[in-house]
Amino acid sequence: MTQPPQPVILQNLSIPRPSSGNLAALAEKDRPIAVFSDFDGTIFFQDTGHVLFDKFGCGPEQRERLDKSIGKTMSFRAASEELWGSLNVTLPEAIAELKKKLTIDPDFYTFFEYLQTHDIPFTVISAGMKPLLRAALDEFLGKEKSAKIKIVSNDGEISEDGTVWKPIWRHDSELGHDKARSVQEFRDSVEGVQPKVVFLGDGVSDLAAASQADILFARRGLALEEYCIENMIPYIPYNRFKEIIVDVKKLVKGNKYHDPEAKEAARRAKIAQLTGLSPLTAATGDKPPSKGFSLGAASSDEEDEDEDSDVEAAAKPPAPQSPPHSPPLKPVLDERPGLDRKHSTGTVPVPAGKPAGKLAPFEEDDA
Ligand SMILES: [Mg+2]
Question: From ligand 1's centre to the CA of 41, what distance in Å?
Answer without folding.
Answer: 4
